[in-house]
Amino acid sequence: MVFNRYGRFVFSERESIITLAQKCGAQVIFKEEILEGYQLYIVEQWACDRRPYNTVTVFTGEPTHKIKVCVILIEEERFQPYPEKYPEKLEILFSDLEEDKTRLKDTTLGTIFVTNLSSFPSSLSTILVTEGDYNVYYPQFRLNLNLRRISCSGKTALSLKPPTELQKQKFFQLYSVPEKIPLEFAVIQLVKYVQTTLYLIFGFPQHFVDGLLCNFTESCLREFKNEHASNFENLDNIFDPNLVAMIFKMVLSIRNKLHYLNYQVGKDPFIDTETFINGVISFQKSTKRDSISHKLDSEIVNKINETYNRSRYPDGLKMRKRSKSFTNAELARKQGACSLYSRTFEIDIQTYMVYKNLKGREATLEDLIKNLKSTAKKYDDQIEQLSNAYEERYQKFKSTEEFSLKILSKQKKVTESVKQIYSDATARGKLNYELILLEDKLKEIDEFIEQFCFKVQVMESKLPHSSRSVKALFNVWNYLQDQWNTITSRLYNRKSDEDKE
Q1: Which residue, 259, 278, 312, sits at the end of a domain?
Q2: Structural domain harbouring 447
Q3: Does residue 35 carry a pLDDT above 50?
Q4: How far apart are CA 309 and CA 317, in angstroms?
Q5: Could you please report the per-residue DSSP string of 320-387?
Q6: PANTHER family of this UniProt entry (predicted)?
Q7: Per-residue pLDDT averaged across 298-312, rounded?
């Protein structure tokens, strides 16, 4: 069945379809809408084959089944005068939809392409997209697919569930990745770097550098293995860590050699790829090569290695005539200033980077030790100040306790004198009433003292360890002492008056 190429069309892969529509001159009506009564499935094999779309839409009629879609408009008037100028990518998209035997279904938003799962090939694996949001669940699908294709998960059916702890540990251990790096970021970036390297070597399509370990990526890895790593045995996992390390080492080695030969190749070939390729092109032009390629084929790699060795070791390939004997004078001349250059050696770039990293860590640790020592000194000074403040507070409270004992002894003496006055028969009747009042007053004072002692304990726990709190306690005690002296003086004056009478 041949579909009409013009009209309003509804697709569930919003991001890729919107990008395709903008490049082909189609109009985007809605970037995100919800369509009820449909379910969405991802087809694993289609995603690995890099098809224009990798999902199928199934009509269920259930209002609870919803998918998120975008709507584009392909106007017939835009391409009708020149039908041969119809965008090639859109033509491929519709041709694939026709080959997959999808059927058109009209909706309130436009025409959507639906599939009947009962007639869908059983050889293709489908994964139900929860909530029908392809853009949200595609990163999880890509992560799980990569983990399975690099032998970090079992051979069970693919799902959209998060990876297990066992899968995480296997990946971190297999590729020596620090566990503090998020798993999804580590997996996707590793695949992206490998795809970037394949772009530099074989001209891997740059728009495929998205972190999905597709069939085309594996095909390029096999080509690299056959061309540059033929000594490798048959690998069950084409994304083998040793092969990945080798492909990284090759690109970094070529970059360092071109930099030594004074070509502008940038600092990082995985990030600044265009500068690196321009450096390779400049080298090709300098060798007067007939055809200029934008990739690192075997001929270019061998030529770079040959030029580098000739420049680095100008006399390395020459045969030297061996002398039969040396005199002491000749040996001394050989050990002069010129011999220093002959004893220099080339440090491996990886060893140098490790050494530089260790030196940086050493400087950081030295600064950290200095900061810790200064912090420890501050804490020691604070501890000494707190100890002195505590000792001073303890001495002041001790003197306060001694003063309170003196007041209690004085109270005891007053009580004895009152008893003597009470024993006198002549003054008994007169002082009986006054003694009762004084005893009530003394009871109130005793209760007040008990409350004060309790408050002192509370204040001791709440007030800060400072001289101000101790002064406050002394002021209270001075007030109590004055009151007590007033009471005792009244008693002594009354006793003296009675004696005179």
Answers
A1: 312
A2: 399-500
A3: yes
A4: 9
A5: PPPPS---HHHHHHHTSTHHHHHT--PPPHHHHHHHHHHHHHHHHHHHHHHHHHHHHHHHHHHHHHHH
A6: PROTEIN STB2-RELATED
A7: 88
